[in-house]
Design a protein that fits this description.
This protein has a domain of 182 residues: Orthogonal Bundle (yeast vps74-n-term truncation variant fold), CATH 1.10.3630.10. Helix content is 51%, strand content 10%. It is built from eleven helices and five strands; from the N terminus they run H-H-E-E-H-E-H-H-H-E-E-H-H-H-H-H. The protein has a three-stranded mixed β-sheet with strand order 1-2-3. A two-stranded antiparallel ribbon has the order 4-5. Helix 8 packs across helix 10. The longest helix is centred in the middle third of the chain and has 19 residues. The protein is globular, with a radius of gyration of 21 Å. Its main location: Golgi. This is GPP34 family phosphoprotein.
């Protein structure tokens, strides 16, 4: 199990939304897209998925210990295991099955085996006409990647890192989330500052950790880094972060979906 000191990428992303002055979360619109990419990033960092370019090539069933991430991994395993269209090209590692695409042991009996063969054949046919899913498609099709802003806020509240208050704005009720531990947010921001800014200014200490690079790219894709590093005042840092984000496939997928959602006639 993970502790308070072991925040996941999506949890750190959400805490970066806290105002340094009030501690209230100011969550950008469509932020759940960035959190979804953060959850997949956490799985990549833990070795639960293998990534090549903008695709998931392998999925390894395991337990991370963070309930939402574990739920998302279980959904990934099911999609690959069942041979869903577009997902079949992803390899499932470490989950024994005698019939590809059919979970569990090989069915006993001639009729059951014929049915199992037919199921696999139908799934293979459906999958063969679909392009392999890229990150953007995974972020769109997995239902467990939706509404993550509320789910992670509630999870952090249960851990004592956020508190919720009900307020009314123009007569409409809304929930305001406030951090109970501003030091956590400042520690995250300080880590980013310590690992990123020296490189932006041409100094070359140890390279940023992979976790920090992932976090910064996703935060930039969601529009968070401009709050701490306005381009006019931090041009070199802003440019360096842009370069990191441009090379980060999951951040690019999240950013594309945020732009798409923003452009919808209903505003998403």
């Amino acid at each position: 199990m993970y502790g308070v000191s072991e925040l996941t990428v999506p949890e750190e992303l959400l805490l970066l939304c806290a105002s340094p002055r009030t501690g209230e979360l100011d969550v950008p619109r469509y932020f759940t897209r960035a959190l979804a990419a953060g959850a997949l990033t956490e799985l990549q960092l833990r070795g639960a998925i293998t990534v090549e370019g903008n695709r998931i090539t392998e999925v390894r069933p395991m337990t991370v210990g963070e309930p939402i991430v574990d739920e998302i991994l279980a959904a990934l395993v099911r999609d690959v295991q069942l041979g869903r269209p577009g997902a079949r090209q992803t390899r499932l590692v470490g989950l024994p099955t005698d019939y590809e695409g059919v979970p569990g042991p090989a069915p006993a009996g001639g009729w059951a085996r014929r049915v199992a063969h037919a199921r696999v054949a139908m799934r293979t046919a459906a999958a063969s006409v679909q392009e392999p899913r890229d990150f953007q498609r995974w972020l769109q099709v997995l239902p467990h990647l939706r509404d993550l802003d509320q789910r992670y806020a509630q999870a952090l509240e249960r851990r004592g890192l956020l508190i919720s208050n009900r307020r009314r704005t123009l007569g409409m009720p809304r929930t305001v989330w406030t951090t109970t531990a501003p030091a956590h947010t400042e520690q995250i921001a300080a880590r980013i500052d310590r690992e990123i800014r020296p490189h932006a200014h041409g100094r070359t200490p140890a390279p940023p950790s992979p976790r920090t690079v992932h976090l910064v790219a996703l935060a930039h894709a969601a529009g968070l880094t401009g709050r701490r590093y306005p381009e006019r005042e931090h041009h070199a840092t802003h440019r360096y972060i842009e370069d990191l984000t441009a090379a980060h496939h999951l951040a690019q997928a999240a950013h594309s979906l945020i732009k798409h959602d923003s452009a919808l006639p209903s505003g998403g």
